Amino acid sequence: MSHTALVVGATGIVGQNLAARLVAEGWTVYGLARRPRHDMAPVLPVAADLLDPETLRTALADIRPSHVYFCSWMRHATEEENCRVNSAMVRNVFAALAEPQGLRHAALTTGMKHYLGPFESYASGVPPETPFREEMPRLPLPNFYYDQEDALYEASEKYGFSWSVHRPHTIIGYAIGNAMNMGTTLAVYASICRETGRPFVFPGSPAQWHGLTDLTDARQLASQLLWAGTRAEGGNQAFNIVNGDVFRWKWLWPRLAAWFGLEAAPYPGQAGSLEAMLSGDEDLWAEISRRHGLKETQIGRLASAWHTDADLGRPVECVTDMSKSRRAGFTAYQYTPDSFFDLFMRLRAEKLIP
């Protein structure tokens, strides 16, 4: 059976890795973005604004996907606005498809804010007990993930396709210009420390330094998205998705440092701010880029320190249960240190870090 995918948000960390995986599996893949990349062949670029129904309908007029993958979101100042805008984006895509009744499956990628709450009240109050499990009830807070899910459920009921929701932890993978990109952010930070002699200090909270945690390789997420969209066991379900191992940052941090030829600095015992540490380093990164012949001179295109601070600054441990999808047949595993090392090697090979 042939498969045609529409990947919404194809230039992001999830969309890029998913599109690459689907192409490798022989799918026809359309990559939708406001400013699609034209160097991702054989992914077919589609340019459209998800909040402009008319141009979206025109852009999708000749596309008949069997699968739609939502890998895009837009951040706004309040969660109320996040809910309105991000659910509208999902609804607009289904409304713009010429033959939505021809869909076999649609998948939505969300994340741990499903359990920890939105940005403006993130990990506040009494946190849920870990490990996070899919059957945990929604928090009594506005959350755009919930509104996106509801839009997906409505379309599924209307048009008769199966759905899946995927909840990764922090995603590690290759993407440039992405707002949520811890792996590349840490690579930039480590590179600056090596070039300047600054200490490579873990900027996060004591709970993250000492406690157990897990992460999600973008390739692992792509594997689960593929599995859920092509297996009956994956239909009409929400699944957590992490690498399958657990670690403590106090164990991993020296290993990341060693990859860059650094000694990890002693942990200061309290959370710092990577955003503050990198503040004002635009000219420094531009100089490092020129000195080493790197492709990207703008540090803001590589590092998203604010989001890394949010992840590493959590005051609670984050451990995610994967039993549901494992029992359903998804058994893929990814060793977390290799998620970072593979990314670092690619960034260096493509001359994005020295």
TrEMBL record:
Domain (PRISE-like Rossmann-fold) ranges: 59-354
Pfam family name, one: PRISE
Domain of life of the organism encoding this protein: Bacteria
Entry-linked InterPro entries: NAD(P)-bd_dom_sf, PRISE-like_Rossmann-fold
Protein name: SDR family oxidoreductase
Organism this protein belongs to: Gluconacetobacter asukensis
